[in-house]
Amino acid sequence: MIVQPYRPVTYTIGSVSSGMQMPMSTGMQGMQGMGSMPPQVSSGSPMTPGGVVVQNPPQQFEQSYIENIFRLNLGKVGTFYFTYENNKEWNAKVYKGVLEAAGRDHIIISDPVTGQRTVLLMIYFDYATFDEPLTYQYPGVIGNPPTTRNCR
């Protein structure tokens, strides 16, 4: 296979071999800026059909996903329950440790005694328990809910 180098070519409007100037229609005006950079669009920002970026107001809170809840509670000791389907040696496993990091698809916990760190995949995650109150920010609610409830 022969690889040919990419050679960009710049065309100017109105350069016709016969020397005639082409009239600029509304369609050609849009081509004028084709050599310029497109507008910077932040991830998830919508654009109008005319190419104008609609800026969304910045979020004041994180969405209520499990990784965000874990990130709000880094450093806390928890018990994490996992199920590994179709595993003949151990179907379910329980891990206890300090929550050190949380990503979209994994968490990292460490054993407070040995310091050994374990990376756990969230695909196998069932639930977690903590012996202390959790920091939790529900979308649209300012502050944390009360840690005690009036149960009767």
Key traits:
single chain; elongated; mainly beta; 9% helix; SH3 type barrels; 2 helices; five-stranded antiparallel β-sheet; 152 residues
List the helices and strands and how they pair.
Elements: H1 26-32, H2 66-72, E1 77-83, E2 92-102, E3 106-110, E4 117-121, E5 125-130
Antiparallel strand pairs: 1-2, 1-5, 2-3, 3-4
How would you sum up this structure, described in words?
This protein is mainly beta and 152 residues long. The protein has a domain of 65 residues: SH3 type barrels (Roll), CATH 2.30.30.100. It is built from two helices and five strands; from the N terminus they run ααβββββ. A five-stranded antiparallel beta sheet has the order 4-3-2-1-5. A hairpin with an 8-residue loop joins strand 1 and strand 2. The radius of gyration is 28 Å and the shape is elongated. About 9% of the residues have low confidence.
